[in-house]
Amino acid sequence: MIEVAAEPFNYSFPPDKVALIVIDMQRDFVEPGGFGESLGNDVSLLRAIIPTVADLIGLFRIKGWPVIHTREGHMADLSDCPPSKIRRGKPSLRIGDEGPMGRIMIRGEKGNAIIPELAPIDGEIVIDKPGKGAFYATELGEELEALGVTHLVFAGVTTEVCVQTTMREANDRGFDCLLIEDATESYFPEFKASTLAMITAQGAIVGCVAPLAALEAAAEESKAA
Ligand code: C5J
């Protein structure tokens, strides 16, 4: 087992049963002109975590531990997008509308792609999800079962929406979860802080939280042991 200094208590994981899930580091959320900005958000806040997420992905790749990426987006005919979701946002900049990076939040469009700095490499699983949670209406559960994964490490955006929703889904399915706090971000810093507090409250009701440095140190220590 590898033991990471975390809150509210240390997080232990078997290195052959862990995977990283990087949530929605896609142009629609992180770059100007996408869905995130169309909702009135300042995307520059999210860009600050890109180097940390890259280092986290790099650690998993070096270790040979699975890296899974997710993208929130919809089919071109919007048949997988509830009308209530389409109605959100500013008129003429809604899901399916033509934006600066193609149709907003539509699979295959430029804006729906994962940002080039964090692009998946061959062999990494990419989950296209229509909802906020990565388990809903996707093959994620089956993929994790096939890999024999029991422990999940999380990163990505936004902390209180897709990251938290997916972590809660994972927790309910019995996965032991760790969120890397400096590899996740929100358009609203106070929402991120509240989410970290909610996750770890009541004896880690959803999971544990730790900085990347703690995971790196634990991985290094286990190598020396
Ligand atoms: C949102 C996400 N915020 N990836 N999506 O709509 O968190």
TrEMBL record:
The answer to whether UniProt assigns keyword RNA-binding to this entry is no
Q: Which UniProt keywords apply?
A: Hydrolase
Q: What is this protein called?
A: Nicotinamidase-related amidase
Protein species of origin: Kaistia dalseonensis
Which InterPro entries does this one have? Isochorismatase-like_dom (IPR000868), Isochorismatase-like_hydrls (IPR050272), Isochorismatase-like_sf (IPR036380)
Taxonomy, superkingdom: Bacteria
Q: Which Pfam families match?
A: Isochorismatase
Hydrolase recorded as keyword: yes
Q: Where's the Isochorismatase-like domain?
A: 19-208
